Structure to design on (530 residues):
């Protein structure tokens, strides 16, 4: 394989590269059992030992050290001061207990070393042969010592661990920060990168980050749990995975929805083994679920056909009526690159949630948010639009669309052979000359917007949190037609259903495809009728 469709693979450490899980578990057990016995002597509290199955896996595994301490103690109804990272192990604080555990771990590591999963090392070497970037991202502050002890440090082009996280104030798992930081360090796009994890919090982080593939390793016979929490594929060992197999994942295509709909599908299919690999078409759970739906919709190309000029994309009365009926039974949000005010005016349905400017400006019943960085850049956007109109506004067919916190160069009506290179070069130059801006390429459009870690997938997560909706308690559906919707498809995938509106087979993170807004209308009609 000379050319592959992905750029980087980022590995967790414990349980993925090295088998230090038992060392960690033993260090945690000794630490907590000592503390619980002390409380028994001092407070008369009955001693119940710390166990691997009931305590380590649900409360500690995969979490940053202090968070693991806090999580376990809360499970036992114990509240103590958090303390400071410099606290000594004999101090009764979360940090003190965590630091004591770290000392125990280093003692065992220095004495016994760490076991290496050879199949992981073999895969990493194979990735190197194909010029795939490789990084390690771990919550552990002992990541570098472990890699040095095992002689593996040279295999990784970046390391984002507990030490780096503390310095940069990155959020721990299940937030995506350490994996996203590793991808950026490598210069790789998140959507073209893989996360390899063995813990629930880790696969959640990969899914929250919108990574192209979240690969779980079921070291604890926990394939079902990993699939439930965000893994696309679960294996028992990385000997089951190859560069070619990963590449096939990145080139997969969505299935035609209505060809699939007519088949009898169980409401909640079990994980199924495919060539000794566990995966689930969890998309079915959203469409065929009896749970209330939470539906996210793009506007242009999804609720209306793609037209030559944005102002011509008018919602039909029949589509407006079916969306209104849909919103009377389910939660509906519109997520679009359009300005929110424009979106609300075009749709004209009260009670919906509207996320404009790719989700940087959100409003709805009892919630609202405008990204502060985006808001601050509004005056500069206006200046750029004015300059663009003077510089390239004379190109025949070019439409310069001013939005609130971004602007777009639509070239659908332009002679592309003659003018597209000039337009693209101009768009790129704007980004170079204006720090804090980035370029996004959609359907026949270049859009310049604030360079912040935000997209439609992040907007979906924000709305879910703002509405206090749990992924397992609602059936989530996202429908969109553009490359900008792929971020949302990746965040929703395995948690719900992504549907891309397209009449062309092409790789996508969506589960299904429909050919047109007319088929979207047909889908809505089926949902409304139940």
């Amino acid at each position: 394989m000379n050319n592959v469709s992905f750029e980087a693979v980022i590995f967790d450490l414990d349980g993925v590269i090295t088998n230090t899980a038992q060392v960690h578990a033993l260090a945690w057990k000794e630490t907590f059992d000592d503390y619980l016995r002390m409380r028994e002597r001092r407070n008369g509290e009955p001693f119940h030992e710390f166990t691997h199955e009931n305590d380590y896996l649900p409360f500690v595994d995969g979490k940053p050290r202090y968070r693991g301490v806090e999580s376990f103690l809360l499970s036992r109804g114990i509240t103590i001061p958090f303390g400071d990272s410099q606290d000594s192990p004999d101090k009764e604080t979360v940090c003190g207990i965590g630091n004591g555990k770290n000392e125990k771990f280093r003692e065992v590591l220095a004495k016994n070393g760490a076991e290496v999963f050879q199949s992981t090392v073999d895969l990493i070497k194979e990735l190197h042969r194909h010029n795939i970037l490789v990084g390690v991202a771990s919550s552990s502050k002992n990541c570098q010592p472990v890699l040095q002890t095992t002689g593996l440090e040279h295999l990784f082009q970046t390391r984002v661990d507990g030490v780096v996280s503390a310095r940069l104030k990155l959020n721990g798992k299940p937030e995506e920060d350490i994996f996203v930081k590793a991808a950026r360090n490598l210069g790789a796009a998140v959507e073209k990168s893989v996360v390899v994890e063995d813990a629930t919090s880790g696969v959640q982080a990969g899914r929250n980050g919108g990574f192209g593939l979240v690969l779980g390793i079921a070291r604890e016979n926990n394939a079902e749990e990993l699939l439930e929490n965000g893994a696309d594929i679960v294996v028992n060992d990385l000997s089951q995975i190859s560069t070619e197999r990963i590449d096939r994942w990145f080139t997969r295509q969505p299935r035609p929805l209505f060809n699939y709909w007519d088949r009898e599908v169980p409401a909640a299919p079990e994980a199924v083994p495919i060539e000794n690999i566990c995966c689930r078409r969890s998309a079915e759970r959203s469409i065929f679920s009896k749970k209330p739906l939470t539906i996210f919709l793009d506007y242009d190309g999804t609720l209306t056909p793609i037209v030559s000029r944005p102002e011509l994309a008018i919602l039909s009365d029949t589509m407006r009526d079916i969306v209104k009926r849909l919103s009377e039974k389910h939660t509906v949000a519109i997520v679009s690159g359009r300005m929110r005010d424009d979106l609300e005016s075009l749709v004209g349905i009260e009670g919906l949630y509207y996320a404009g400017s790719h989700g940087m400006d959100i409003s709805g019943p009892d919630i609202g948010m405008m990204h502060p960085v985006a808001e601050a850049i509004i005056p500069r956007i206006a200046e750029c639009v004015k300059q663009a109109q003077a510089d390239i506004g004379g190109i025949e067919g070019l439409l310069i669309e001013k939005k609130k916190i971004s602007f777009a160069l639509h070239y659908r009506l332009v002679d592309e052979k003659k003018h597209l290179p000039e337009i693209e070069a101009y768009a790129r130059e704007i980004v170079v000359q204006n720090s804090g801006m980035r370029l996004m390429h959609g359907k026949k459009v270049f859009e310049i917007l604030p360079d912040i870690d935000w997209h439609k997938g992040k907007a979906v997560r924000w709305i879910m949190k703002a509405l206090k909706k749990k992924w397992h308690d609602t059936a989530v559906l996202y429908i969109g037609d553009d490359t900008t919707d792929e971020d949302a498809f990746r965040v929703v995938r395995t948690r719900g259903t992504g549907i891309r509106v397209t009449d062309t087979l092409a790789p996508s993170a969506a589960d299904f495809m429909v050919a047109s807004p007319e088929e979207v209308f047909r889908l809505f009609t089926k949902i409304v009728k139940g």
User: Anything to note?
Assistant: The mean pLDDT is 91. The first strand starts at residue 8 and ends at 11. Residues 36 and 430 are 61 Å apart (CA to CA).
